[in-house]
Amino acid sequence: MHNRDDTGENHMQTVEGRIVLVTGAAMGMGRLYAERAIAERASAVVLWDIDGRQLAETQAELGGTAANVHAYVVDVASLADITTAATRVRAEVGHPDIVINNAGVVRSKYFWEHDHVRDIAFVMNINTLALMHIAREFLPDMIANGRPARLLNVASASGMLSVPMMSVYTSSKWAVIGWSDSVRLELERAGHSHVKVTTLIPSYIGTGMFAGARAPLLTPILDPARVVDRAWDAMKRGRARIMMPWPVALSGALRGLLPQPAWDWLAGRVFKVYSSMDAFTGRAPR
């Protein structure tokens, strides 16, 4: 079920026989992660989402496979919901071996136009705090079980580069990158090398969430299935992070090397990063 990669660390070839939990699983990339788990014969796939109707449809459509598909309506913006659902999962399904922190939201406007609760708290609770609370619920069991386990945290390229018109979203993803990588190092330092943490750092993905956004120079709108394929493989291998596409890593390096005025000129005038959200509309209501 697992072997050794080029670095000598154990990694999974497949999730067969394991319990996989995915947040934001009713549609989009969350559903794609669930489909990957089912295709690899996970023993159980746990779907978390706030949209009960869509979640039920997804569970019904995926439930005809060999894997046991369990659906829970969970508002990950609520710590109470997270702890209650986690307790139910442990009692009804078992301890997850793989947790994919996929759920996320975006708000686009000038910072001073954000509402304290509907925008700032909402985005930070879902994009940042939920990942921490969910990991806190399941990591102790992953550590204690002693078998290979994985935590995949979905961040964003905007967590490495400032982007006007989504300051709160950007800050939420900056926090995810720093937290996720710190947890990775803590696990290694504490001798829990069987638990690996992977941070996914993609640019704009064509799920509808960023409808209207214009991709920066050399950075196409990413295909969701392609991102999930790459992230899934990186997660199983236990890679520390995956950045997509390649200009994301280049931009991060240039941002750290160039003086601020030079970087602002390059990002604004050449790469068009700073204007990428000017025509943002977001996903249409369903």
TrEMBL record:
Query: By its UniProt entry, which PROSITE patterns does this protein fall under?
Result: ADH_SHORT
The protein's matches in PANTHER family, at most eight in alphabetical order, are given as: PKSB, RETINOL DEHYDROGENASE 10
Write out the similarity annotation: Belongs to the short-chain dehydrogenases/reductases (SDR) family.
Q: Which InterPro entries match?
A: NAD(P)-bd_dom_sf, Sc_DH/Rdtase_CS, SDR_fam
GO terms assigned for molecular function: oxidoreductase activity, acting on the CH-OH group of donors, NAD or NADP as acceptor
- According to UniProt, the name of this protein is Short-chain dehydrogenase
Which Pfam families does the UniProt record give? adh_short
In which domain of life is the source organism classified? Bacteria
What keywords sit in the KW lines?
Oxidoreductase
Among SUPFAM superfamilies, the record links this protein to: NAD(P)-binding Rossmann-fold domains
